[in-house]
């Protein structure tokens, strides 16, 4: 199927060199290939010698279960193994694997593929599984010096493990290039969080989904965006000391539990709390004063905003008296 | 307004497309950062913007790359990817006028290998 077929275009294509695409810079061709269905990419080895080289040097491996509908797990596994075997000996930028609940992968294969990615200095590792067979995550991931972005969502701890709800991080965490981290159902306590922060000076984006466990202090000078979406166990209260934070999202703990140190000036915040009363003076005013996007919901937000309105310190909240419990309130500049 | 100098296999087509790409790319990048424009309007603007002949499309890619306009580069690369879609190698060669420089034996070998490894 061709794009706009006007006469002039057809003429100019035959007048000048016909094959305009193969002459584009390699990094642009890799970018184009990263948007192409991977099953088509492997077929494109047959197009020409240049394209064979390009496909075998694929920088972005994206495997989504929806592109392999009706494939048995064994067939998919062979596909991925052969994809990695055919690949030329060079670094890999992205390894992305999103696998669905129906028909779990063999975790030995997943570990092999991750091992391949790590050995080839992967920058972006994004793996979503529904089931994993061990409690501890593969240690090799957490000492990968090239890793810039890590996203692991592997389901809860295996059923037979009664000591843990979430998956467990290995002891050694050293990711000097890490900029963005997303973990779901992984037990992240104070110690492991500090290991990430201490060894990843460029960590700007931190997203913990049903992972934050008994955190006391989140302190980072580099952190720009923080999401705490659900907690493991009770959330007793924690302090955030991140002076350069511009985005904050928090779901599942009471407003009173959140304290601020080295107050940042947030550009956007989304807070969905679950407390019932709010008696203390809020440190939130300063933090939210310049926010351009604000989404607040929960019953203790209503209590807090009614109190602040009396002092008139946030003039943009005008109709809060009419907020109902659990009503979503969205404000945007 | 002068176009930036950039290497191109086809100077004529570069000169033809650069002023359009520069001025529209500026409006695209400023529009995409403004919260005011509705998503549907932006989407149809984007779709119309890339309805050009292939030579212009590739020049837009080069311009976006050179000027480091991420939104435009993403859009144009996605457009080319959509042209590749799930076509067979023969169809892809036809769409982009790519010359098949394999010998028949070599191509048969690759075809067999693909069938064994990836089908």
TrEMBL record, chain A:
**Gene3D superfamilies linked:** 1.20.1280.50, Ribonuclease Inhibitor
Which InterPro entries does the entry mention?
Answer: F-box-like_dom_sf, F-box_dom, F-box_SCFL_complex_component, LRR_dom_sf, LRR_FXL15/At3g58940/PEG3-like
Please report the stretch or stretches of sequence annotated as the F-box domain. 18-68
A Pfam family this chain is assigned to? F-box
State the superkingdom: Eukaryota
What name does this protein carry?
A: F-box domain-containing protein
* Species in which this protein is naturally found: Aegilops tauschii subsp. strangulata
Automatic annotation (TrEMBL), chain B:
Q: Which SUPFAM superfamilies match?
A: Skp1 dimerisation domain-like
Q: Where is this region: Disordered?
A: 1-38
Gene Ontology biological process terms from the UniProt entry = ubiquitin-dependent protein catabolic process
Q: Which residues belong to any copy of the SKP1 component dimerisation domain? A: 70-117
Pathway per its UniProt entry is:
Protein modification; protein ubiquitination
Short name of any one Pfam family annotated for the protein: Skp1
Q: Known PANTHER family for this protein?
A: SKP1
Q: What is this protein called?
A: SKP1 component dimerisation domain-containing protein
* Biological source species: Aegilops tauschii subsp. strangulata (Goatgrass)
């Amino acid at each position: 199927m061709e794009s706009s077929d006007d006469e002039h275009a057809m003429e100019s294509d035959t007048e000048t060199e016909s094959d305009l695409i193969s002459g584009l810079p390699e990094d642009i061709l890799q970018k184009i290939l990263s948007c192409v269905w991977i099953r088509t990419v492997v077929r494109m080895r047959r197009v020409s010698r240049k394209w064979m080289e390009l496909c075998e040097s694929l920088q972005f491996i994206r495997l989504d279960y929806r592109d392999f509908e009706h494939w048995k797990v064994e067939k998919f596994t062979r596909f991925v193994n052969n994809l990695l075997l055919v690949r030329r000996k060079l670094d890999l930028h992205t390894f992305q694997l999103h696998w669905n609940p129906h028909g779990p992968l063999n975790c030995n294969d997943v570990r092999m593929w991750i091992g391949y990615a790590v050995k080839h200095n992967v920058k972006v590792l994004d793996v979503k599984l529904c089931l994993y067979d061990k409690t501890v995550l593969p240690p090799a991931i957490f000492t990968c010096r090239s890793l810039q972005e890590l996203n692991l969502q592997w389901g809860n701890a295996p059923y037979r493990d009664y000591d843990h709800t979430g998956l467990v991080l290995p002891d050694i965490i050293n990711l000097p290039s890490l900029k963005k981290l997303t973990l779901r159902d992984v037990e992240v306590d104070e110690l492991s969080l500090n290991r990430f922060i201490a060894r990843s000076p460029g960590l700007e984006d931190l997203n913990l989904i049903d992972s934050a466990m008994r955190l006391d202090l989140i302190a980072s000078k580099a952190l720009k965006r923080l999401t705490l979406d659900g907690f493991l166990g009770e959330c007793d209260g924690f302090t955030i000391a991140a002076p350069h934070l511009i985005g904050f999202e928090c779901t599942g703990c009471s407003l009173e539990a959140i304290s601020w140190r080295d107050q940042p000036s947030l550009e956007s915040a989304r807070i969905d709390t679950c407390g019932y009363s709010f008696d203390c003076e809020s440190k939130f005013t300063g933090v939210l004063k310049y926010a351009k996007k604000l989404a607040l919901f929960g019953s203790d937000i209503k209590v807090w905003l009614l109190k602040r309105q009396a002092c008139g310190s946030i003039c943009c909240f005008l109709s809060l008296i009419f907020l109902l419990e659990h009503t979503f309130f969205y404000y945007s500049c | 307004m002068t176009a930036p100098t950039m290497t191109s296999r086809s100077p004529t087509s570069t000169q033809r497309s650069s002023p359009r790409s520069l001025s529209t790319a500026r409006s695209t990048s400023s529009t995409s950062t403004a919260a005011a424009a509705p998503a549907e309007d932006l989407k149809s603007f984007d779709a119309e913007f890339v309805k050009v002949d292939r030579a212009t499309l590739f020049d837009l890619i080069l311009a976006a790359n050179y000027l480091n306009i991420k939104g435009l580069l993403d859009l144009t690369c996605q457009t080319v990817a959509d042209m590749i879609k799930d076509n067979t190698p023969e169809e892809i060669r036809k769409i982009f006028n790519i010359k098949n420089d394999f010998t028949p034996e070599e191509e048969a070998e690759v075809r067999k290998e693909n069938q064994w490894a990836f089908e």
